[in-house]
Each structure stands twice: as structure tokens, then as C-alpha cells.
Amino acid sequence: MDEVLTALIDQHAELAGILAAMGDAEWSRPTRCEGWDVSDVVLHLAQTDELAIGSAEGRYDEVLYRLGAGLPSAASVDESVAALVQRERGTTPAALHRRWASSAHALVTALDAGDLSRRVPWVMGELSARTLATTRIAETWIHTGDVADAVGVELADTDRLRLIARLAWRTLPYAFSSAGRDLTGPVAFRLTSPGGGAWEFLPDGPAVTTVSGPAGELCAVAARRRPASATSLRAEGPDADAVLDLVRTYA
Question: How far is it, in rounded angstroms, from Cα 213 to Cα 120?
Fold first, then answer.
């Protein structure tokens, strides 16, 4: 099995372990996602996994219509996501747990059934199935942290962060474009892995801006879970501040 799918399975397993140990009351605990409790976070993951399954199986428009049928047009992706969660709130923890587990398993199966280099539709356009899988690792990692934080579970960084950090690096042009900004030139990431090794993401030509520091901190900043000012990350170059402000873990 491809490395990215193995990492996705492992990320699912980390969240599954937390959910399996939770009592019903813990599903109602507030999370660091404003206005969402644990149930909302898991519902959102199930919904977006289902959409990713549709993408991998050539049914993206069909699943998108099913999930959003009857909802008013939203001004942004965030508004659309919030509306989908709001409409399906109220499911029991047991049923919600089953729905997420089923969608997580089906997603890996759907991705593994085809060539990961194939182009598939996603929220803001087409991307490779491999990149879609990586975005699902990143989002599941982010929300696993949200759930863990809500229920008091400490999580250790893992080497799965390499895929997430690379995604954040590769999507910098998209992040800048979405913000109406232009990169001055190529960016390099020189990061320290959870095990103390070096992870380098380097452009083909000379980098004009370089970000260095712990990979876990970079991923947390890109996930909008920590401000760069609260980390030991260092950025040098003409786009230093902008990169740390705009970097993200999704495409």
C-alpha cells in the first residue's frame, strides 16, 4: 500500500483510539473550533470523508448535492461547512462514531482502488488523488488534536507530520493567491522532525525565504492552531512574515 494511505490509516487509528475511550458526555465537550463540540468535529470529518469518497469514485457532484441539498448558498467554504454540520446535529454518539468509522474505512478503500496520480475534483478545483489523501491526513490530524484537547488526551507528534508539512510547503502559492498576495520568490522549509532528524523541502532554484524550526510547530501554525509568535519557528527573507501568516495545511 502507498505510504500516504498507510499514514491515513494510522491517523484514523489515532482518532479511533480516542473516540473508543470516550463516554457519551465527552462528545458534548466544547472544542477549540469555535461553536463546535466534539460531536460537531466528528460529524464534520464524516461529512468531508464522504465527499472525498465521492471524489475518488467519480461521484463528487452527486455527494456534494446530497450533503448540501436544500441549504442556501454560502458566501465561503467555511460558511458551507458550518451549515452542513448545523443541519445534521443531534445524532447519538454511537451512531456518529459508526458513521465516521465507516467513512474513514471506505475512503481508504476508494483511494486504494485507483491510481493515486489520477486527477480528482475537490473543493477549490482538481488535484491528484494522492494530494487528496494527504489533505485528509492533515484535516484528520488537526481535528484529532481538537478532540484530544477537549477530552484531556496528550498526543505525541509522529512522522506523519512530514506529509502535512510538505503539503503546507507545496500549497504556499495557492495560499498566497487566495489572499491576493504574490510570493517574491521560492520558499524553503528546513524543519526538525519529531525524532530530531532534518526534513528539508527545497525549491528547484535558490530560495529567497527560508522557514526553520520544529515540524510540529510549523504544522500547528499552518493548521491555525497556534500563532507563529508562540513558537520557536524562524523565518528569514522578503516573505518571512507573510509565509508564517498564510501557510496552511489544506488545499
Answer: 33
Q: In what order do the strands lie in the sheet with 209-214?
A: 198-201, 187-192, 209-214, 234-236
| Domain extent for 178 | 161-246
The total of other beta-carbon atoms located within 10 Å of residue 206's CB is 9
Q: What is the pLDDT of residues 183-199, one digit of tens each?
A: 999 999 999 999 999 99
Question: Grid coordinates standing for 33?
Answer: 473550533
SS3 for 188? strand
Q: Which of 123, 151, 179 is the last residue of a domain?
A: 151
Which pLDDT tens digit goes with each residue over 142-177? 999 999 999 999 999 999 999 999 999 999 999 999
**Nearest 5°: phi and psi at 158?**
-130, 175
Helix ranges (H only) for the chain are 3-20, 38-56, 60-68, 77-88, 93-112, 129-151, 161-170, 172-178, 215-222, 240-246
Which grid coordinates are listed for 29? 465537550
Distance CA 117, CA 119 (A): 7
Q: Evaluate whether 134 touches 164 at the Cβ level (below 8 Å).
A: yes
Interstrand relation of 187-192 and 198-201 (parallel, antiparallel or unpaired): antiparallel
Looking at the fold, whether 109 and 197 belong to one and the same domain comes out as no
